[in-house]
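Progress note, sequence design subtask.
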């Protein structure tokens, strides 16, 4: 009798499981017909991941999508059951990022700054909160304010030179990406948090260790993230945060202690933290308008009466708002600037003739200032360094994909396609930067690629290392400055060469969110003989 019962139970369980699996399969198949039903060219997805080969999207996937959709302006993809619209045409990209910005202002990332204050930052916020905060923060990123911080960058650049000296004296191959990450960490710690980190001297400083923890999510976080992608409404119940409680506590306490110490002891420094404190206390004076960071008039005009930005209210800059901005400044600069310098050095090591030309310019300009790296030399006169960085950002954009989310069902300008509210929109920056249609011989590190003549020929919205439109990276100017100081600090004293450990051709880490070399970057740093 027991055996009959057990057999019956197993049969029922098996049938139930089959029904569930069939229902799931049917659900995905129905979801995967989304783009076909709308007449959008799409690629065949697979249950359950859709078009992506792994849990997290990677560079190889986007390269495959871009090639398979050759000749198409747009294409439909799926991440699990979630539809994604991939944009390939520069004019449509312009419409989404600029002209129709009020319909695509969101990054599509759910945040709740009341539960986790650090996510209430300029990168993640949307709607009126974002626009209000952008308006408040723009004065802190003008050329005049950034110039005040230049001496700090130069000093840390000198520490970078010292850090490289032992390896240069021994002519050893070294992993430069880690050292450059420490260089940028020290800059951000000083300028954004107002603390002396000294990670160039000690790689295991507390600040750097806690920063790394943010980039190492645990298994529970990954599983929750997957569930939220598949079943979005679960985010209300899973209480998932982009920042762990311990990391949040550390950074918020650090900011709180720094602000209170400065206010109680009347301490002032030339850094972003001081400017944020002035914003909090409403003592930040009037500043010149910075045209580089100005939101385009066309986008302002587009924010009409039905726009969500009409409910803009004046919000206060609290301690948590300061912490959130300092934190995103750290996250945004932790890898982007260091990888840009890394890739730049790699290309110069492969092209010693170009490197020598750049060094001659550096020597000539610094000689005018008695060997010192000055703001005038860095920003105005060192044109070849800027050209090398532009070429690097073209070939190796730190953020390989720009993401947006449709906030109101609309017809996509330039097409007959209706994009529904909530649909994700992706711009494959890396693939556009490597499209021979826009860049002849895209793998070549061409010295003339960014001459004024060539730039005038290039189609707009085919160079997007910092994004475009009103959500153009607000820290672009500062990021370029710290990157230039790093390159100048190295090339003024040292020559960069490939070594037996250098990966040629270069392998990109397919799973990194920020474009990064797989296995690090091994180069040989030697003292300049002609110095």
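Output:
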């Amino acid at each position: 009798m027991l055996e009959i019962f057990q057999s019956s139970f197993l049969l029922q369980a098996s049938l139930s499981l089959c029904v569930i699996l069939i229902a799931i399969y049917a659900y995905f198949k129905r979801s995967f017909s989304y783009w076909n039903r709308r007449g959008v060219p799409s690629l065949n997805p697979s249950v359950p991941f859709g078009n992506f080969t792994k849990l997290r999207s990677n560079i190889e996937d986007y390269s495959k999508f871009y090639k398979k959709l050759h000749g198409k302006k747009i294409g439909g993809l799926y991440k699990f059951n979630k539809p994604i619209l991939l944009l390939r045409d520069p004019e449509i990209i312009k419409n989404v990022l600029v002209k129709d910005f009020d319909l695509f202002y969101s990054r599509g990332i759910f945040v709740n700054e009341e539960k986790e204050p650090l996510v209430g930052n300029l990168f993640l916020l949307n709607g009126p909160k974002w626009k209000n905060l952008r308006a408040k923060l723009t004065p802190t990123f003008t050329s005049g304010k950034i110039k005040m911080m230049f001496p700090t960058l130069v000093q840390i650049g000198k520490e970078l030179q010292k850090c490289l000296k032992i390896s240069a004296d021994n002519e050893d191959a070294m992993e430069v990406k880690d050292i450059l990450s420490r260089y940028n960490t020290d800059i951000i710690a000083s300028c954004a948090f107002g603390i002396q980190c000294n990670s160039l001297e000690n790689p295991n400083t507390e600040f750097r260790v806690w920063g790394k923890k943010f980039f190492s999510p645990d298994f529970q976080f990954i599983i929750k993230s997957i569930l939220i992608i598949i079943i979005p409404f679960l985010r209300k119940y899973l209480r998932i945060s982009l920042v762990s409680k311990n990391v949040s506590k550390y950074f918020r306490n650090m900011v709180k202690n720094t602000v209170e110490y400065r206010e109680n002891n009347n301490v002032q420094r030339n850094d972003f933290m001081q400017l944020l404190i002035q914003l909090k206390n409403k003592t930040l004076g009037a500043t010149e308008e910075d045209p580089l960071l100005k939101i385009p008039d066309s986008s302002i005009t587009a924010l009409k009466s039905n726009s969500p930005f009409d409910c803009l209210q004046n919000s206060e800059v609290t301690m948590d708002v300061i912490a959130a901005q300092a934190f995103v400044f750290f996250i945004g600069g932790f890898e982007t600037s260091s990888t840009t310098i890394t890739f730049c050095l790699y290309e110069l090591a492969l092209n010693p003739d170009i490197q020598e030309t750049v060094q001659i310019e550096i020597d000539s300009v610094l000689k005018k200032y008695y060997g010192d790296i000055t703001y005038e030399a860095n920003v105005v006169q060192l044109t070849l360094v800027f050209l090398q960085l532009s070429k690097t950002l073209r070939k190796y954009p730190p953020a390989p994909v720009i993401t947006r989310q449709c906030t109101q069902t609309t017809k996509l300008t330039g097409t007959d396609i209706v994009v529904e509210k909530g649909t994700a929109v992706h711009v494959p920056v890396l693939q556009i930067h490597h499209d021979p249609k826009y860049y002849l011989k895209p793998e070549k590190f061409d010295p003339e690629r960014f001459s004024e003549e060539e730039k005038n020929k290039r189609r707009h919205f085919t160079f997007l290392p910092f994004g475009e439109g009103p959500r153009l990276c607000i820290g672009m100017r500062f990021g370029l400055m710290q990157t230039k100081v790093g390159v100048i600090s190295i090339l003024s004293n040292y020559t960069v060469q490939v070594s037996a450990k250098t990966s040629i051709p270069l392998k990109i880490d397919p799973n990194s969110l920020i474009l990064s070399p797989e296995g690090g970057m091994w180069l040989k740093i030697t003292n300049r003989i002609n110095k």
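The domain at 84-527 is CATH 1.10.630.10 (Cytochrome p450). Work on this subtask will continue into the next period as scheduled.
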